[in-house]
Amino acid sequence: MTARTVPIDFVRSAVATAERQGVDIEQLLGSVGVAPELLAQDRARVTVEQMAATVRQLWRISDDELFGLGPAPVPRGSIRLVGFGVVGCPDLGSAIHRFIEYRRLLPGLPPMAVTTTGELTRYTIDTSVLDEGEELLTVFLLAGVHRMISWGIGRRVALRQVEFPYPRPRNIDDYDLVFGAPLVFDAATAAITFDSDLLAAPIARTEEDLIAWTRNAPTDVLSRRDYGTSLAEQVRKILARGLRGDWPTADEVARRLAMSPQTVRRKLGDEGTSITQIREDILRDAAVASLVRGDETVEALSARLGFSEPSAFRRAFRRWTGSPPGSYRGSAP
């Protein structure tokens, strides 16, 4: 897997939440290695690790699994305790129903429901009880449910559809990183839809597994394993070899996919991207990750990424992120 980044919009949402609780924002950003000036750059990115560290700080500050944004506090560790009761279920269907029953013990969680209609099952979360405009928390909740389902049965779960009760955001491409599924915005409620036959899948985890999994939270919620649900993700996997040598050509990518180059271009266009854009995203994410780690000079990084000279890399990086490389240099906490 290549390095991934997430948009600054998610950090902005976290900062707004922390500000309402009187937190020193510069201190918060400094603790996770994000330069404050990046908040003003719409194209700025942070690593998944930096975003996960930000969420952990919000948990620490609020002592609330929902960062103080729900109808009542959900004390830290509550979800893990509920998980201990869920891992003992025989299959996914009974685990989901038990989790929804346990929700009554945690009034801070929004109302949830599951409905099965033929081959599809829909899990809904009523986010109307949350603070208005909290898109980050909606994404976090939907992704959290999806990750728990996949983790619980030890299988990749391809989502058939994901619904969001707010308008289409600017950073739409990043939602594929998190969900890798068809997206619907301005929906009546937040929801994920998956194949009903998964409900019979046995729960494959133990309490020890649960402890280990939650220890890594929320990193897995903010990223995504390769579920192969979009052509763009498959192309990214092929192109990523370019970070270790020569970049595959469009014809080579098409051959790997058993498609014609024209078909690849058309299908990627339907997904709102292209081979060129995916290659740029790979370079951008690799550059951000390296600069945050601070273990390469700009000269060495530009050469490794295939730029003819550092000045060309600097121009490209500013085009990608709106900021010079120095804004990210050595910012890891």
TrEMBL record:
Keyword DNA-binding listed: yes
SMART domains: HTH_ARAC
Residues in HTH araC/xylS-type domain copies: 233-331
InterPro entries: AraC-type_N (IPR032687), HTH_AraC (IPR018060)
Keywords (A to Z) from UniProt: DNA-binding
Keyword DNA-binding: yes
Alphabetical list of PROSITE patterns matching this protein: HTH_ARAC_FAMILY_2
Pfam family, one: Arabinose_bd
Name of this protein: AraC family transcriptional regulator
Lineage of the organism: Bacteria, Bacillati, Actinomycetota, Actinomycetes, Mycobacteriales
